[in-house]
Amino acid sequence: MKFLVAYMTKTGNTKKIAEAIYGETVGEKELKPIEAVDSLDGYDVAFLGFPIHQMGPDKKTSKLLAKHCIKGRKVVLFITHAAPENAPDLQPMLAKFRGAAREADIIDMFDCQGELAKGIKRIMSLMPNAKFRMWAKMDNSQGQPDQARIDRARAFARDVMKKLGEAK
Q1: Which domain holds residue 10?
Q2: Are 37 and 75 in contact (CB under 8 A)?
Q3: Can you point out the beta strands (E) in the chain?
Q4: What is the CATH number of the domain that holds 78?
């Protein structure tokens, strides 16, 4: 099988997870920034990684998912975010990524905490929305994704390989 691991990152969080996933995929494979991907034609499975922006996929991400996640295409999503994985507000945000890629055959989805950019944290702390100010104040994302989360991403990729019958 031929795999693509593509990612969008501004802080490096999603790239770290992409590299961990890439290291566990077997067979012919490529790792690239999503901006370098013109088409998913020629790949059997595409791992696509994005950060949460604006409480879900931003407009650019939504357009990319709509363009690339067509009927019959096998896709694995991986998402990074500043929230702890058990945050109650997180699941609806993740569901928006699934919704944006709904035409594809979504094999699985991984998410983990990544470090919130300092500039974004400052903006959130000044916003009129009390929820954003609270999230900025409660932020505990420094140093994420840590080694445990990177190891979880590796295990996730190995599990996907097993599901696809491509285990090491």
Answers
A1: 2-116+145-163
A2: no
A3: 2-7, 28-33, 45-51, 74-81, 105-113
A4: 3.40.50.360
Tell me whether residue 40 is in a domain: yes
All residue ranges of the chain with pLDDT < 70 are 167-168
- CA gap 75, 37 in Å, rounded: 14
Please state the domain count of the chain.
1
DSSP notation for 79-115: EEESS-TT-TTHHHHHHHHHHHTTTSEEEEEEEEE-P
Count of Cβ atoms closer than 10 Å to residue 145 Cβ: 22
How high does pLDDT run on average in the chain?
95
Q: Which long-range contacts (C-beta less than 8 Å, at least 24 apart) are formed by 26-30?
A: 26/161, 26/166, 26/167, 26/168, 27/1, 27/2, 27/3, 27/166, 28/1, 28/2, 28/3, 29/2, 29/3, 29/4, 29/5, 30/3, 30/4, 30/5
CA distance 56 to 132: 14
